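Moderator note: this is an archived Q&A kept for reference. The question asked for a predicted structure of one protein chain; the sequence and the answer are reproduced below.
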Amino acid sequence: FLLKVTHMSRARIVRTGIAAGLLGVALLMAGTGYLAWTLVVQHTAERLETLARLASQRADSTVAQAAAALRELNRSPLPPCSAEGIEQMRLLVIDTLAVKAVGYVEEEVFACSSWGVEGHALEQWPEDLRTADGIGVSINVQPSVTSAKPMLALRDAAFNLLLDPEHFLETSLAPGVSLALGTPAGHWLGTPANGFAHFLARIHGEPHTALRDGYLYTRVRHANWQTVAAVTREEILRDLWRELLMLAPLALLLSGLWCWLVARRVRASLSPLAMLTRAVANGEFSAFYQPILDLRDGRCIGAEALVRWPRADGSVVMPEGFLALAESSGLIEAITAQVISTACRELGPSLASGQLQHVSINLSAQDVASGNFLPRLLEARQRAGIAAQSIWLEVTEGSLLSIDAAHRRLAQSREAGHPIALDDFGTGYSSLQYLRRLPLDQLKIDRSFVQSLSAGTPCPVTDHTIAMARQLELLLVAEGIESDEQLQYLRQRGVHYGQGWLFGKAMPRDEFLAYVASHHWRAAS
């Protein structure tokens, strides 16, 4: 028989597998998105910091170059507002890219500039900072000799120099990046766009790098300046899509691998061995009891505990559906332990009160080989208050792989007080050897011999088995009694006990106890 998974169990496992697969794929996709976002933000922040440092260094370099030119003018022997002096200032403007104008102040009058003689009153420009070498710097001054665009003014002694702020904020090599250069106090050079100007006002004193108000920015402080480089969220999202496209093959590969692992797990969970393993772990096995009657007076004196596997849908899996797999996988000992515990618990009161004389428990080859059933049986019957002689232990010829090892285990069981029965006698090749060498108390006549019996017709094999049992002083139990003719044949030859469908099939505990309480079977005379 093949072990079958119930529809309900299969559907539940499949649903769980699908949910696990979808959840795993969703987490992988979310993780890929998070990784792509993290990488984009990290790479963008690194790029912004590099640009900001370059802008700061360029500002320092330009200011240092302009300051050197101012000091050279102060050291020049030429009269400042002479034709030669004005020409010298004009050459300085031509030779220095960022410088737009140079002027000379004498007694608070703007005397001359690189544009020529001026002679008007000097407009006082507030000094925003002073460099380490004493150069005064004013941010966003409004010159009178150039266009209305705000300039950066440097002052050294009587000379002034105007620098174009666009030279500091050139971003042609970094499309999409907004740059702002200013003093540590937050006075920004030039006129930032409206949205960016508002953003610069809000981030004063904020962390070094952050995502704020739709911008990812990095601020760098260097010497006399602070520089802010920023990109909009839209720029980041464009980069994010590119990063996702690069990571998509990896995400698809991992998702496929995860789905393959889930499918493999589902297939394993749907396998008979997986179902059987879960059933053992959950203690799902129970015992059904087939009545054993005294053939002399028809009294039910005991039962054989037969393992059953009830399923969640109400069906019951018979032993033929799982015992072979349990034995080959090493799970049979755990199943035997559950049968021992169940039988002692369910029939304990009836055995302790004497209503029943015994319950028979079958042992597998692994049980006999290991002997682990003995301490479990001792614990179970002591807990239920059952005497050892009330538990019969049945072994089959197929479970006795080694006669010497079997002899030791069965002798130990017999010394503990448990009667030993040899089941399926006569179906193997070593039956007589087992009778001679094993410590036995009962002999069970196999159902294949019982089914061939009929009243008045001798059966040499069965008669010979009965004669050997009498000679060895063994109790006889006949299995598979299904007709009155078979019963009469066994009665006439003095067989002590019998079981079979004539008396009752294996049944659950409540049904069996009701059978014992209300049914007193007697064969027709």
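Archived answer notes: The longest strand covers residues 300-310.
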